[in-house]
């Protein structure tokens, strides 16, 4: 609602249920643990450039919202409370 308005993150189950019969998931790679360090780097860059961001006309509320997002998501990914996956979908022969 606040970070990605209108965004939707479907579950693995929802993706499976949406696939037509001729397609199947052949591989799933969990990459959430690797995403945490990326978010940490984004957080650091965001904080280091805070004044520059504000000078572009963004509000402190906007800056704080993204600061919270990067910190929260990093922690949730690091401790496996949320995950990101890559899915390989193949067509049946």
Automatic annotation (TrEMBL):
<dbReference type="Pfam" id="PF02353">
    <property type="entry name" value="CMAS"/>
</dbReference>
<dbReference type="InterPro" id="IPR050723">
    <property type="entry name" value="CFA/CMAS"/>
</dbReference>
<protein>
    <submittedName>
        <fullName>Uncharacterized protein</fullName>
    </submittedName>
</protein>
<dbReference type="InterPro" id="IPR029063">
    <property type="entry name" value="SAM-dependent_MTases_sf"/>
</dbReference>
């Amino acid at each position: 609602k606040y970070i990605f308005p209108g965004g939707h993150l479907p579950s693995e189950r929802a993706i499976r249920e949406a696939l037509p019969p001729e397609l199947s998931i052949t591989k799933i790679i969990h990459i959430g643990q690797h995403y945490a360090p990326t978010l940490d780097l984004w957080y650091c860059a965001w904080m280091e450039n805070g004044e520059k961001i504000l000078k572009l006309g963004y509000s402190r509320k906007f800056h704080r919202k993204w600061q919270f997002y990067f910190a929260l998501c990093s922690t949730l990914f690091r401790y496996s409370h949320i995950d990101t996956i890559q899915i390989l979908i193949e067509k049946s022969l």
